[in-house]
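Course assignment 3, question 2. Fill in each field.
Student: A.L.
Task: Predict the tertiary structure for the chain below.
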Amino acid sequence: MNNTSKINFIYFATGFFGEAVLKNLLSQGVVPTYIITSPDKPAGRHQIVETGLIKKIAVELGIPYFQPIKLKNEESLKKFEEIIQSNTVCVVADYGKILPQVLLELKTVDFINIHPSLLPLFRGPAPLQNLILHDKKNTGVTIIQMDELMDHGPIVAQKKYSINDHNWPCSTLELSNILAKEAADLLIETLEKYKNNSIEYKEQNHSDATYTKMINKTDAQVFPNRESIEDMYRKYQAYKLWPEIFYINIDGKRVKIKMMNKEKIERIIIEGKNETDFVGF
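Answer field:
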């Protein structure tokens, strides 16, 4: 078993990138002492409450977990004070919530965040999608010390990675899985540095910062009359998981593109109809 498995670290995660990083850590015998994840939420047409991705792993492996509804209320802070000790490294990866300053100020070794881009580029909630949209196959992962601002703190570790031309542009989920492996390896190295008291911090060049925003459904609209097939395919790959790209046809109907490749559209769903082969605009 990897020696870093003995390091006391708490893992904050909710989304699929956080899940992929965790699975890569576990595959190397590196197990968090506690997991923090978002509460279970209703999903689907019937709004059935589903167990979250990270909670499923915690339950399966018997790792203690906590699902706070709010981070700053008295009950949550009391729980955090019990969980987080002075010898703890708190690792955040795709948690989905901004940690309040009162939490960051708890006595701990450090609060660090894993971000799937080369910060200060693509700060914010949607780095993976934006790497694809902006055709950035030469990218990487960054671990920063957290402060009160989003993706702003000093760099603890950073690793560059280039996606193979043959596989680019890949989907958001594929890119997440690729960078999650690199992130897990980098985190293991970083935890060893904390163990050996050899961490060094490097201030980000804030003047070079770029930002992403929350994705909404309208972002996934494509415009075949003025966008190239290459641009449409990048959008298709970026938004394949959600919300899926669409265009408006000459009849004013919403048409969802269900399948395409680098050269052509293959399958569509016209509003109110079943999925069919694409025959033309």
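Instructor remarks: The chain has a mean pLDDT of 94. Residues 217-274 form one domain.
Grade: pending
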